[in-house]
Amino acid sequence: MKSHRTGRSWTWRLALTIVMLALAAACSSAGGHAASPAALDGQRTTFGSIVLDGSPGTPAVNARTGTLYVPLQCPDSFCRSGQPAHVLDVINAATCNAKVRSGCKPVARATVGVSPNAAVVDEATDTIYVTNSVTDGNDGTVSVVDGARCNARVTAGCGKPRATIKLGGFVVAAALNPATHTLYVADLKGAVDAIDVAACNAATTRGCDRPVRKVSDGQGPAALAVDVATDTVYAVNNGSGDGNTVSVIDGSTCNGTRGSGCGQVPRTTTVGSGAAWAAVDQASHAVYVTGGNDGTVSVINGARCNARVSSDCGRTWPAVTTGAGPAFVAVDPARDTAFTLNSVDDTLSAINTTTCNGTSTSGCQGRIRDAQASPHHGPGYLAFPNQFALAPQTGSAYVVNIGGSNVMSVVSVRDCNATRTTGCRTEAPSVPDHESTISADPATGTIYAGHSSRPQIDVLNSATCQAGRLTGCAPVAEIPVGHPMANVSAVDRTTHTLYAADPEGGTVAVINTGNCNARDTAGCAQHPPVIKVGAAPNTPVINPVTRTLYVSYGSQANRIAVVSTATCNATRSSGCGQSPAVVKVPDGTVILAVSTATDTVYAPNSGASSFSGHTMSVINGAACNGTSHSGCSHLAATVTVGSGPSGVAVNDHTHTVYVVNNANGDSPGSLSVINGATCNGTDTAGCGRSFPTAVTGGAPLLAAVNAATGRIYVIDFASAAVTVLDGSRCNASVTSGCGTPLREQAVGSAPSGLAVSPPVNTVYVADGFQAGSVSVFRG
After folding, report:
1. Cα separations (Å) of 244 from 222, 317, 400, 665?
2. Reduced to 3 states, what is the DSSP secondary structure of residue 480?
């Protein structure tokens, strides 16, 4: 059985790396049933959704009969039971599309082979070919389904396939050349099969049991696309997930009826890392290949790199920046658009095929406009969508997560494409600063940001880098630290000290912000003293009242170091060599928050891996601080929260603790809303109750509170957005506003760092993927 979840696995390799290095500072401010999809950037995007009969494979649409076919790899959502399915959901696309949703449910189930994973339609013979990987991955087949007798209106022929083609291997995808009547099938174990479908279709099965021709491709072909005019098959070599080549196969000498060229080793051309899918624009011969690891789509000039012409196959192809984890691409010739599905961002990018193709590249520059691909919450929520079927006639895309949820999203492509952008997301303005974590010091108007690739902390001026004014966002100074990706804390205003953890060095730097800020940079070049903590320290938090710094650390993030800052700060370093006290906590305790009102440390426990935890540790700061360690040996309480708690923020004005529940992205994220007045280090009476939740987007990571306005900001990693909630209507006492966000602000790919500066009412978001930008918008 194939469980193709490339985008998802990439997501959590990145997300866990970022989170375990402490994503952001300023997670605490200085001082039931989800709602329908919220407005994104002030616009309302509507979606249809279909509950499938199991976890899907690659769907296909037959435009002639108005039928959508969806292979089901297993009968469960996310294939939890491990049992393979053998059916194809049949859906009426005429009554389930971007405009009409009255018929968004399966009308029939067709029987196919074991663990079907991809469907291809031959409209000329009204035949549906379904690749079946079979559970052991060594006995792949193709089912031949009669589309004339198994479609949206006629289901009499759905009971069994017309024939089964035996292939062997681990077949995962297919593509059709209607001119040569050849079906090409990708075998991930090292071959491309060529099947004569003129002799094996819904009308005739005389050739279905013939031996098939094979092209050897040892780099692991995972997807195929055909240029009909040049008779070229492009095989995307995914390998183990890091493949970056495309094999160029001569279809004129290797097809269903001719095999003279099948024995030749095909030439290859290099594309982006993590190549996952390809689509051909038959008009321009451009081949669009997604690069899931680098967030780009490579554009091959198929006129200069095909079965007969290889002059440009060795060149570096233009790469279009789309979003995080592009996993699938399809061309809509009527709209001059190549739509790319970005799995990690939940977006559909719209590449203009007239200005970005094999011969014209003017439209390949910059970030391509995109639209939301599926609901961020509610019953239609779809985690990490990675493939879709395009129905240009109705302007619809049918979006799924291969091997994932049993939900299909139906989204319009009419209003966000190469010629129309009214339905595209409006991302917050951004600047090309390469930051990983961000912290704001409102007192001096300074933004401190750990650089993603250099051993430095950048110093920015919020007076010249704020919402509506981005002219001065270049760093005014750099602070040297041990390694890149320093985890910067909030500034201790009482001692003018910034504490920044160095995950690779196992230390925390002690930085003087009195002479290193946006107005005075005289001391920025000095190498700061450090505190030795332990392996992989995360973002520190401070209780300025007790002069204590808390920082989680450890390879499993299951320790919290407790440091006295009374003798280790910007002006006094005599105590920086101290041995910190230690609090033992569950695995995955990364982000911390302090309530100065109750002297409590709140520490969500995200789990050892994949955000599997569901608790938060409560530490009594009165008994566990820089001078008193009596309470460090035990927790005051353990609170049950949502799945995969990853971040936390405190608003002492409303006595509210907001816990970010990531849920591993498999279900809609949320905030647990906890009453800090009755659940704290000294009063745990309210810690055992069930807490109300607030709506967020997909896979939320961090939260921050603007103390001046009470608004709550939540980074939604898998939605490329920030959820904005009204804290006056969503807090420990009032929850009427928790179910409806004020808005969702679109930002860059894989947002991973967050800070709020109340004096300039500005939110800063580090866009983690490609580490290339900081989004800046008004709070």
Report:
1. 12, 12, 24, 27
2. strand
Residue 714 in contact with residue 670, Cβ under 8 Å? no
Q: Report the candidate in 497, 435, 502 with the shortest Cα–Cα distance to residue 465.
A: 435
The predicted-structure confidence for 150-195, as pLDDT tens digits, reads as follows 999 999 999 999 999 999 999 999 999 999 999 999 999 999 999 9
Q: How many CB atoms lie within 10 A of CB 67?
A: 25
Q: Which residues contact 260 (CB under 8 A, 6 or more apart)?
A: 253, 254
Predicted pLDDT at 136: 65
* DSSP code of residue 293: T
Four-residue CA torsion sign, 747, 748, 754, 758: negative
pLDDT band for position 19 (cuts 50, 70, 90): very low
Backbone torsion region of residue 168, taken as left when φ is above 0, otherwise alpha when ψ lies between -120 and 50, otherwise beta? left
What percent of the chain stands above pLDDT 70? 93
Which residues make Cβ contacts (< 8 Å) with residue 315, sequence separation at least 6?
none
Whole-Å CA distances, 266 to 246, 538, 646, 696:
10, 48, 47, 48
526-557 pLDDT, tens digit per residue, is 999 999 999 999 999 999 999 999 999 999 99
At residue 135 the predicted structure's pLDDT band, cuts being 50, 70 and 90, is low
Percentages (nearest 5) of helix, strand, coil residues in the chain? 5, 40, 55
- Are 552 and 487 contacting, i.e. CB atoms less than 8 angstroms apart? no
Distance CA 219, CA 238 (A): 7
pTM: 0.93
pLDDT of residue 771: 61
CA–CA distance, 226 with 356 (Å, rounded to integer)? 19
Q: Which residues contact 579 (CB under 8 A, 6 or more apart)?
A: none
By three-state DSSP, how is residue 749 classified? coil
Closest CA to 371 of 720, 11, 32, 7: 720
Counting every residue written for the chain, the total comes to 779
pLDDT score of 82 = 75
DSSP state at residue 721: E
- How far apart CA 327 and CA 349 sit, in angstroms, is 11
**CA-CA distance, 328 to 410, in Å (whole number)?**
16
Mean pLDDT over all residues of the chain? 92
pLDDT at res. 16: 38
Torsion of CA 636, 640, 643, 649, to 10 degrees: -50
Nearest-5° angle of CA 600, CA 606, CA 607? 125
| Alpha-carbon gap, residue 183 to 163, rounded angstroms | 15
Residue from 90, 127, 142 nearest 202 by CA: 127
Query: Tokens 């059916």 label which residue?
Result: 87
pLDDT tens-digit map of 23-57: 333 333 333 323 334 444 544 567 999 999 999 99
| Cβ atoms of residues 677 and 706 within 8 Å | no
How far apart CA 5 and CA 414 sit, in angstroms, is: 27
What lies within 8 Å, CB to CB, of 514 at 6+ separation is 496, 520, 523, 570, 571
CB 655 within 8 A of CB 732: yes
Q: What is the mean pLDDT of residues 94-101?
A: 95
Cα 383 to Cα 218: distance, rounded to the nearest angstrom: 32
CB within 8 A of 199, min separation 6: which ones?
Answer: 206, 207, 208, 210, 256
Encoded tokens for 399: 């979006």
CB-side neighbour CA atoms (13 Å) of 366: 10
> Rounded CA gap, 88 and 146, in Å?
12
Going across the sheet that includes 656-661, the strands are 645-651, 656-661, 670-675, 693-695
